[in-house]
Amino acid sequence: MRMRKKKYLEDRLAAVSDILFKIDTLDRNFNTSILQKEYIDFEEWFGNSSPIYLEIGCGKGKFAVEYAKAHPEINVLAVEKSANVIVGACEAAKQEKVENLRFICGSAEYLEKFIPEHTIARLFLNFSCPFPKKAYASHRLTHRKFLNIYKNLLCKGAEIHQKTDNMHFFEFSISELSQSGFDIYNVSLDLHNSDFPDNIITEYESRFIALNQPIYRLEAKLND
Fold first, then answer.
1. Considering the entire predicted model, what is its pTM?
2. 118-136 pLDDT, tens per residue?
3. Do the Cβ atoms of 79 and 54 come closer than 8 Å?
4. How far, in whole angstroms, is CA 11 from its chain's centroid?
5. Is residue 89 part of a domain?
6. 34 three-class SS
7. Structural domain contains residue 105
8. CATH number of the domain where residue 191 is located
9. In 172-188, which positions are buried (b, 16+ CB within 10 angstroms) versus exposed (e)?
10. Where do the DSSP E strands lie in 84-211?
11. In terms of Cα–Cα distance, which of 71, 22, 77 is closest to 52?
12. How many structural domains compose the chain?
């Protein structure tokens, strides 16, 4: 079901425009659109040259806000394709006065157009949509199509951190990562019954905890 457009959405987006970049391209074919680069000057936007950690699919921004607050030495860049959703995340960042957090509204397929190569020091994929039907496998954010994008964005030695409640999606992710040249480690099949420190609980995660569902987690980085 499509989410109803929020009241005063355009005014609310304008009010957070200093921390929000909206992807707006006339070329709807990302394969051709990304050939013409329009790189964001992140040093100017953040006001510093700290490492940049990227979250794709930030939702309402709970993880991004809390992570940025806990790590002022890191710049956090959060991506969400729905303007209806990301506006709330931006407003939360403003309310919390989080200075090291910025947002991009748009689809992950276009990120190579706006983010320079080897800019991202860590990538978070928190409870991405699993797209259960096999016909939609290429939409999963750990499909090799996206992993090839991440390879261009990630710095040498950068890690991917993934969390999901979906066992089949997790198995799919492990397979795709392995076949795409990533080493996988720190795997947990039940995150909240493990000794993993400093886990930030996302909006979705709190629901799954209440339902007593296991949370799957992994870390991965490209083979040297």
1. 0.94
2. 999 999 999 999 999 999 9
3. yes
4. 25
5. yes
6. coil
7. yes
8. 3.40.50.150
9. bbbebbeebebeeeeeb
10. 101-105, 120-126, 154-164, 182-188
11. 77
12. 1
Spatial distance between the Cα atoms of 31 and 148, rounded to a whole number of angstroms = 13
Rounded average pLDDT over 61-81:
97
Q: Which domain, by its residues, includes 149?
A: 31-222
* Confidence label for 3 from pLDDT (cuts 50, 70 and 90): low
Residue 170 identity (one-letter amino acid): F
Q: Taking a C-beta distance cutoff of 8 angstroms, is the pair 173, 218 a contact?
A: yes
Q: Which tokens sit at 64?
A: 């991004």
Residue 199: inside a domain: yes
Residue 189 domain flag:
yes
SS3 77: strand
Helices (H) and strands (E) in the chain, counts: 9, 8
Residue 2: pLDDT over 60: no
Tens-place pLDDT, residues 88-105: 999 999 999 999 999 999
Q: Which two tokens stand for residue 65?
A: 């806000």
As a whole number, the mean pLDDT across the chain is 93
3-state DSSP: the chain helix, strand, coil percent, rounded to 5? Answer: 40, 25, 40
Q: Give pLDDT, residue 1.
A: 45
